[in-house]
Amino acid sequence: xxxxxxxxxxxxxxxxxxxxxxxxxxxxxxxxxxxxxxxxxxxxxxxxxxxxxxxxxxxxxxxxxxxxxxxxxxxxxxxxxxxxxxxxxxxxxxxxxxxxxxxxxxxxxxxxxxxxxxxxxxxxxxxxxxxxxxxxxxxxxxxxxxxxxxxxxxxxxxxxxxxxxxxxxxxxxxxxxxxxxxxxxxxxxxxxxxxxxxxxxxxxxxxxxxxxxxxxxxxxxxxxxxxxxxxxxxxxxxxxxxxxxxxxxxxxxxxxxxxxxxxxxxxxxxxxxxxxxxxxxxxxxxxxxxxxxxxxxxxxxxxxxxxxxxxxxxxxxxxxxxxxxxxxxxxxxxxxxxxxxxxxxxxxxxxxxxxxxxxxxxxxxxxxxxxxxxxxxxxxxxxxxxxxxxxxxxxxxxxxxxxxxxxxxxxxxxxxxxxxxxxxxxxxxxxxxxxxxxxxxxxxxxxxxxxxxxxxxxxxxxxxxxxxxxxxx
Length: 473
Description:
Radius of gyration: 28 Å
CATH superfamily of the largest domain: P-loop containing nucleotide triphosphate hydrolases
Helix content: 25-40%
Largest sheet: 6 strands, mixed
Low-confidence stretches: 31-36, 169-179, 208-222, 241-255
Number of domains: 3
Structural class: alpha/beta
Strand content: 15-25%
Mean pLDDT: 80
CATH class of the largest domain: Alpha Beta
């Protein structure tokens, strides 16, 4: 499982800037205003081949006002669900009483803590880290989140196995038909509380099977649930839907974002469950967008469809098209998990999306398809010269990656990229999976040719150039 890293500290020490640097996104708002971040924000760390779930938090303040207390509660939840906490400090300000308050909270939590001394550009690393050793939390790492300095060293320390315990899949999910079974399709079921995830899971695998893998009193939550349907092996990766009820202390925490992100990372196919009686929330779109950005095959299941009046159904479909237009590749199915309506079609859609994500396409087929696309709609001109796309080959699966070689490919506009994506998707039946197109400019075979001429050929070339110039005069 991916480790969970929480960024904690007093306000305005650069936690959100560090979050953006580690996740290579601009998801967290950044401004020189204390308290800008109030809720927890989640993302994936991708630095130096290492991966983790990163949680950005608001600042911890000792004498907090009403809104700041709510912000602190969010931070404490992030600390509780983290495998390691990064205490972010400001090298320019030095150690403050607010830093000492945060450190005392972290000591009481019992979590492994790593000091991150931010804004250290231009300063001596040993001096700035020594200023914070009095906190009693060990030596720190000097970084500059704004400039990207020291991040690889930070990731190496943050993901050091020493003191970092990450939950692994339960042994019950291993073996034949389990997590280690290469024949099994790994399916993650994600969604908000009360959308019907548990009912859908029970419909797929049976109530007795859920109880077997979700007994109260076990030491760990079991999230890998193997099952078989129509001679096909699956591993269901649940999120909060089948969590042990005794472990759920807060209604809000019934939906664990961390578990959803970890499940998406592990899955081949993601089923996003929505409630037909409710509007699509930002959290729904964000999680589905996260799955699409990771390249996971995706199926959207709109549950509780049997209770919707006929005159409302068209309106709901329009709302889905509007809010989920960015993932038009994903099939949308309308089901009733309680009564079983449409669940069979949902399984077929999962199988189809998996086959599309894992499809192997021969280079001649891709090249012919590229030529057909160009014949129907040529690439645009760039400074009077036509962009030339010569051939294509497959560069990866899950999601399918198509690599196109040609000239001036760096100038291919986004609109033409989308045109090619839609063409390949229709031609090779890639419904249910995102796909990526990469363009590569081939080297000029005549570049440097002049330097390859022998001295005699160079003299002959010079005489010919002088002769042609004389004729022009």
